[in-house]
TrEMBL record:
Top enzyme class: lyase
Name of the gene encoding the protein in the UniProt record: rlpA
Keywords: Cell wall biogenesis/degradation, Lyase, Signal
Protein's job: Lytic transglycosylase with a strong preference for naked glycan strands that lack stem peptides.
Name of protein: Endolytic peptidoglycan transglycosylase RlpA
Gene Ontology biological process terms, A to Z: cell wall organization; peptidoglycan metabolic process
Organism per entry: Qipengyuania atrilutea
Family: Belongs to the RlpA family.
Length: 173
């Protein structure tokens, strides 16, 4: 029986403690400790303020109201000079080496080794006219020529009448 009384007494003390905690007003909470990082630096004195990037001289701030970024042209790398020819109606609609259908009205070209999708600036050395073509086929298969352009590109280069022209090739991006 003594064990039973002790058990009720211990439970009563526990219940009394829980009731006391519940009755404590919220304003009696412990104060929130100060910022631990601020306490570490308190011994060194006040921390310096960060400079204002707008009013502080010597900072490389950018005025976004008057900012005009430079527009960069794609880097060109001249990689060939030689004779160009063109192909047109005879091959129109046929499948190219890349799998696309050849369109003589598109700005495309055939090159023996450049990756498909490469963009090349072709410049006619005699007239100075140039066009940008996308490589989508293989060729030319004549050793004296370095590129075959589509009929549309040939028209802009001014080489349709002669069928060929001396050109400079520059690889873009």
């Amino acid at each position: 029986m003594d064990g039973l009384k002790t058990s009720f007494a211990v439970r009563g003390v526990r219940l009394f403690a829980l009731a006391a905690l519940a009755a404590t007003p919220a304003s009696a909470e412990a104060p929130v400790p100060a910022d631990p990082f601020a306490q570490q630096f308190a011994a060194f004195g006040a921390l310096p303020e960060a400079p204002d990037p707008v009013t502080s001289p010597g900072l490389d701030a950018v005025d976004l109201d008057h900012f005009e970024p430079e527009i960069e042209e794609p880097a060109e790398r001249i990689f060939g000079e030689g004779r160009a020819s063109y192909y047109g109606a005879k091959f129109h609609g046929r499948r190219t080496a890349s799998g696309q259908a050849f369109d003589m009205h598109a700005m495309t070209a055939a090159h023996p080794s450049l990756p498909f999708g490469s963009r090349v600036r072709v410049t006619n050395e005699r007239t100075g006219k140039s066009v940008i073509v996308r490589i989508n086929d293989r060729g030319p298969f004549t050793k004296s020529r370095i590129i075959d352009v589509s009929r549309a590109a040939a028209e802009q280069l001014g080489m349709v009448r002669s069928g060929h022209a001396d050109v400079t090739l520059a690889l873009l991006d």
